Amino acid sequence: MSDEHGYLFWNNPFLADPPYLDGHTLDAASWPGSLSWSRAPGLVSVETLARTHVLQRPYLAAGPYTRRAYSFTIAYQAVGWDDFRVLERAEAKGGVYFWPGLYAAETFAATAGSTYYIARPTPWGTVPGVTSVTHPVTFYLDGVEDAAAATLTGQSVGALKTGVLEVCYPAMFRVIVSGVDYSVDQPNNLTIGCSMEEVIQLS
Amino acid sequence: MSDLHAVLAELTEPAELAAIALGSDTVDEELFGTADSDGTVDAAAQPRSTAAITVGFELVVDGSVVSLTRAMPGWTVTRSLDAQLQTWTISFALDDAEGQFGNPFTHSGPALCKKTVTLRGVYLTSTGLHRIPLITDGIADVTTRSVQVGSPCVEEFSGVDAGGRYDRKTVTLVLKPGHGFTRGAVVQKIAAKAGMLQTNVDPSGASCKKEVQLVDSDWLSVASEMMEVEGRTLVWDRDGLLSNPRTSRPESGEATAWTFDERDFDAAAGIRIQHSADVLTDLTLTTWEQNLGSDECPPEEHETESEEQAIYKPLQETYQQVGSIADSWVFNTVPPDTADAELIPVKVVRHETIKRCGTLVWERTREWGWKNWIEPRMKWDWVWPTTPAEYGFLPQTCYTSDNDEEGQSQGYAYEKEQWSLLGITEVWHFYNWRGYSRGWRQTPAQTTFGGTSDFSHQAWAALYLTSIQSGEPGEPGGVPRGRCNPLGSYLGSVTAQMAPKFARAAAHTPGNDGEGGLDAGTYWLGGAQDCVSNSYPYSPYNGLWWSVPMNTPGLSYGGIEKVVPVALTVTAQIDREGRGTVTEEISAHYGWMVLPGSGHTFADGMNSRYDTEKFWLVGTELVTYETTGEGEHVRTAVTRDQDGNVIGTFRETGEGAGPQLPMLDLPERDSSEYESPEQEDELVQPARRSDTKQIKVRVVAEGLEECHEKSELKTEVEWAESEEELIAVGQRMVEDSAAATVNVTLAGCNFFVEPGQRHRWKITVAGLDHDVRLRSVTWSTDGLRITTALEGKAYGW
C-alpha cells in the first residue's frame, strides 16, 4: 500500500470520504478533522518458561481467524446543526453505524462450499454514494488476489475455493458513543471530539 | 436505567470478547470435520511451533449446539480426582428476564432444568474442526443472576457432570460372602443398579470375598471406598460414563500420557511446587478378612471336660442278699473294703457340641460320678415250685446294709458305688434351610437343618413339621398350619434330659393278681421294652418312646435303676410377621406320668389304663409376643395340661419387639448376579458371613523419619481383603503424603489432559523431573484465551 517513497496509494478508495454516522455524513467543510482507531490484537502470545512463545487465538466457528472490536476517536469542526445533533442522537440510541471510509481485512480457514461470516456489514446501500462498485470487496486466496475465491452477500462469505481466504471489504462499524468533548476556542468555532467503541454483531 | 444497563452489558468489551472467544451464533455441525484427533490436533494440544492454535468451547444443550454470541467470560470446566462430581460454569449476558435459557422464577431453579449440558473443547486445525468432550450429559445445579450498576448484567449457570443424575440414588445389591467378583465388577453392578448400564470402570483386579450388602443405600460412597483400596477413585469421565482412574503413584508399566517441560508451561502464570513436612511415617491399618469354607458344612465337633477330684472312697454295702425263686432269705457278709480314701475323681462333666458352618446344631452335657444303682429287694412273682401257682414276694439278688428279711434298707445292684453315668442333657436345634433334612444335605424337598440323630428329628417332626414343603405342618403343640419361618431362620429345638430313674409300676391290676398284688414282671422301667426292639415310634398321639443306648457306660439292664429319658421339651419359634423376631413360641413337654384310666391301680391310688408309667405329653406352653405402638411388646404365656386345659396365664411387658430369631450362617449362593452357571462356579467360593478374622498391618516409613517427625495414623480400611492389600494401601498413603503438589499452567490449551493420567513434568530450575499423577485440570477463559491449569502429585519418595 505504499510505494518506494513512502507515500500511500490505494487499490480502493480508503479514507477517501467524509465519515458517515447514523445517517449523517459530516459536512465536507468540516472534514478532514482527525480520526484515529485501534484494536487489541486477536492473537494472544503466551510466553513459556523456556522463553519461547505459544500463540493462541479463539475459535470463532464460522468467523475469521481473529475478530476484535475497534475503538475510534474522531474530532471535527461543527459547521452545521446536524454535526452537533448526530452525536447527541447516536449517544442516546446506543448502537449506530459508523462509516469512516475504512476497509477491514479478515482471514478465514476456508473450505469450498462453506459459509463464513465477516464481522461487519458493508456500507453498500446505507451510506450515500458507496456501492460495491465504488468500494468493492477483494478476495485473496492463499495470498493471491482471486475474485473467484468467494462471494459476499451481506455478512455471509460463500467460499468457492479451499484455502486461507482473505476478505478485504469496506466495513461499516456498529458503535456506541462512549465520550464526547466540545470546545469553542474562538467565536463561532465549535470543535467536537468523540470517542466510539465498536460493537460487533452478526446479522 | 436497568434496561439500558442490560443493553450496555453486552456491549462492553468483556461481553464482546466473550462472544469472540466462545464462538459464533452460526455454528453448523456439518460445516466442519469432527475428527477427534490427528497429528494437527496433537500439535494444537501441545503447541511448540510458531503456528497459532485456534481453540474454543462449545456448548450443547439437549443435543443442540448453543449460540455463544451472548456468552460472557468466566467459563470454567474443572475435572478433578478429588471431587466426586466434575464441575462447570458458563455465563451469558442477561438482556431480559428470559435470559439465555428461560426465567428461573418460572422453573423454581435453573431454567436448564434437567436438560443435558455437554461442554466440549474445540480445536480448529488444517484438518478441520475437532471437538473434544470435557463434560458430557451434565446437569445444571445453580443459576445466579447478577445485576449491578457499573457491571454487566450476567446470568451464570453452574453445574456438574453426568454424575449429578446418579449420585443421590439409592440402590439395593447383595453379594454373598465369597462372591468372587473383582471390585471393579462389583462397582459395575452397583452402578447398574443405580441406572448406569454402561460404564468405563476397569473390572480388572483381585477377586473379592467380602459380602456386599446395600439395601436402599447410598452407593457412591461405598463404591468409592472400594476403589480407594485399589488406588483408584470413581468419577464420571468426559464421555459421561462412570470410570475409575488411578489416583496414586504411577506404576512402572503405566504409559505416560504427556511429557511437559519448560516449553509447555506459561511463564506468566508461573509454577508452584509444594512439599509438606507433615508426612505420614507410621501407619496402622486394620480390616477383617473373610474366611473361606466348604459348601458341605461338615460337622465341627468340639468337646470340653471338667473334672472334680476329692479324697473319697466309694461307699460299700454290708450284705449281699441272695435271690431265690422261693420264699427263702440268705445273706452273705461282704468283706469290708480296707483301702483308704484317696484323691480320686468324684465328678466329671463333659460338654460336647457339633456345629455346622458355625451354627450350633447339637449339644450334650454328660455327668459322671460314683453311684450304686437301686435294685428292688423283692419281686412279686410266681413262687416255684408251688402248685397250683401261688404268688408271693421273692428275694432278689442285691446288696444292702441290713440282713433282715423285713429290713427297710435300700437294695443296690453292686456291693459298692460304681463310676457311673449320672445324667445327660441333649439339645438339637433346627433351622429352615433348603437342601437339608435331619442335619444332612438331602434332596431339595427336605427343609430342616440341624440335629444329629434320627430321634431328634422324629421328636421334632412329631411336634412341629411333618412336611414343610407340602405346607402341611404337624398338629400337636399348636403350630399353625401352612406357616414356616423365613428361609435361614431358626425353627426351634428338642431338649432331652436323662437321669437315673426307677419306673413306677401299677400296684394292682384286676384279674391278674388274684389277691390284689402286683403284676408279674412289673418292675420294669418305662420304655425299657423298646431298648430291645431299638425302634423309635414317635407318634405324638401315642406318646414318645425313647431307648437308652445299649453301650451307655455304667448301665445295666433288667430291673434296676437306669439312666433314662426323664424330660423332653420340643420348642418351636414362629416369626409370624417375617421380621426376624419371634412372635410365638410353642413348647410341648414330655415326661413320665401315670395316664388316667381304669384297669390298673398304682400304690398312691391312681388308676391307669396302663400298668406302668408312660413317657407322655405332660403339657404345652404358648408364649406370644405382641408389639405395641410404644416400642414395647407384651409377652403372654399360656400353660396347658396334656388335655389342653389352661392351667396358667402370665403377662409381662418388655422393650423392643420381642426376641430376635436366630439366623443360619451358611455359605449361600445367589445366582442372580452371575452371567452364567459356569461363571458362578468359577468365581464363587463358599464362605460364611460370620467366619472372618481381623487383620492388622503396620507400615513404617523409616526412610522418611530421618527427615520428618514421626507421624502416626491408625485407621480401618473396610474393603481391603487381605494383609497384602492393607500393606499396599498403607504404602500408597505414605507415598501420597510425601508427594509434592505441583501447580502449573500450560501455555497452550490442552483439552486431552485428564486427571488420573501419568505425566512426566520437567522444570529444571525447580528440580522437577518426575513422574506426576495428574490430580486436576481446569480449563477457563477470560474471553480471549483458554487457560489450562493443572495440579499434579510428583512422587520423589
The greatest interface here is: A-B, 38 and 51 residues
The stretches of 5 or more residues of chain A where confidence is low (pLDDT under 50) are none
Cα Rg of chain A = 19 Å
Q: What portion of residues of chain B is helical?
A: 10-25%
Please give the share of residues in helix of chain A.
under 10%
Q: What gyration radius of chain B follows from the Cα positions, in whole Å?
A: 43 Å
Largest sheet of chain A: 7 strands, antiparallel
Q: Poorly predicted ranges of chain B (pLDDT <50, ≥5 residues)?
A: 1-36, 436-456, 462-482, 505-558
Q: What general outline of chain B do the C-alpha atoms trace?
A: elongated
Q: Which percent band covers the strand fraction of chain A?
A: 35-45%
What are its keywords?
heterodimer; A: 203 residues; seven-stranded antiparallel beta sheet; four-stranded antiparallel beta sheet; B: 797 residues; mainly beta; 13-stranded mixed beta sheet; 42 strands
Task: Map the helices and strands.
The complex is a heterodimer of chains A (203) and B (797).
Chain A: E1 20-21, E2 24-25, E3 34-39, E4 44-47, E5 53-58, E6 70-77, H1 81-93, E7 96-99, E8 103-110, E9 115-117, E10 138-141, E11 144-145, E12 150-153, E13 156-159, E14 163-170, E15 173-184, E16 190-198
Antiparallel strand pairs in A: 1-2, 1-7, 3-6, 4-5, 6-16, 7-15, 8-14, 9-13, 10-11, 10-14, 12-13, 15-16
Chain B: H1 2-11, H2 13-22, H3 39-45, E1 53-61, E2 64-65, E3 76-80, E4 87-93, H4 104-107, E5 117-125, E6 128-146, E7 154-160, E8 170-175, H5 183-193, E9 212-218, H6 220-229, E10 235-236, E11 242-243, E12 258-260, E13 272-274, E14 282-290, E15 299-312, E16 319-322, E17 330-333, E18 342-356, E19 359-371, E20 378-382, E21 391-395, E22 398-400, E23 418-432, E24 436-437, E25 440-441, E26 448-450, H7 454-463, E27 465-467, E28 472-473, E29 490-501, H8 528-533, E30 562-574, E31 584-593, E32 596-601, E33 607-608, E34 614-627, E35 632-641, E36 646-655, H9 677-683, E37 692-700, H10 702-705, E38 712-716, H11 723-738, E39 740-746, E40 758-763, E41 768-781, E42 786-794
Parallel strand pairs in B: 12-40, 14-38
Antiparallel strand pairs in B: 1-2, 1-5, 3-4, 3-41, 4-7, 5-6, 6-7, 8-9, 10-11, 13-39, 14-37, 15-18, 16-17, 16-22, 18-19, 19-23, 20-21, 23-26, 23-29, 24-25, 27-28, 29-30, 30-31, 31-34, 32-33, 34-35, 35-36, 39-42, 40-41, 41-42
